[in-house]
Amino acid sequence: MDANQEKYPYIALLEVPENKIEIVPGASADLTSVTFSIKEEDHTLGNALRWCIMQNPQVDFCGYSIPHPSEAKTHVRIQTTDSTNAIDSMNKGLDDLKSACQLIQSKLHQRLAEGNFARTA
């Protein structure tokens, strides 16, 4: 456990299970159009990941849905140009989202360490 985890125990770093993300049947042969199913996730990840993926100029479309409220999974649909594929775009989106979260976490820890903030009762 690093110093930040000891100081801020509410920030969890979990290992991702191997079968966390699956490709839903029906993907295009060239993989430019794929729907991914992400288990045990909801709108929190779906919307943030959709936004990160849409920042890639090689992505034509990205959307997410929750197939049914009683199912703990999120579907993310990605359609790309011919210059890349949806799997690479998903990986880039996940990497970009992780980088953004790490930056926010770093800035939070920096500001907390400075102690220059208003305290409320």
Brief rundown of the structure:
The chain is α+β, with helices and mostly antiparallel strands and 121 residues long.
Walk me through the structure.
It is a single chain. With 121 residues, the protein is α+β, with helices and mostly antiparallel strands. Strands 1-2-4-3 form a four-stranded antiparallel sheet, covered by helices on one side. The protein has helices at 3-7, 43-54, 86-114; strands at 21-23, 33-39, 59-65, 73-80. The mean pLDDT is 89. Helix 2 (43-54) packs across helix 3 (86-114). It has three helices and four strands. A hairpin with a 7-residue loop joins strand 3 and strand 4 (73-80). The radius of gyration is 18 Å and the shape is elongated.
Features:
alpha+beta
Number of strands: 4
Helix content: 25-40%
Shape: elongated
SSE arrangement, N to C: HEEHEEH
Q: Please outline the major beta sheet.
A: 4 strands, antiparallel
The separation of the N and C termini measures 31 Å
Total of helices? 3
Mean of the pLDDT scores? 89
Strand content range:
15-25%
Uncertain segments: none
Report strand order across the widest sheet: 1-2-4-3
Task: Determine Rg (CA atoms, Å).
Answer: 18 Å
Topology (elements, then pairings):
Layout: H1 3-7, E1 21-23, E2 33-39, H2 43-54, E3 59-65, E4 73-80, H3 86-114
Antiparallel strand pairs: 1-2, 2-4, 3-4
Helix pairs in contact: 2-3
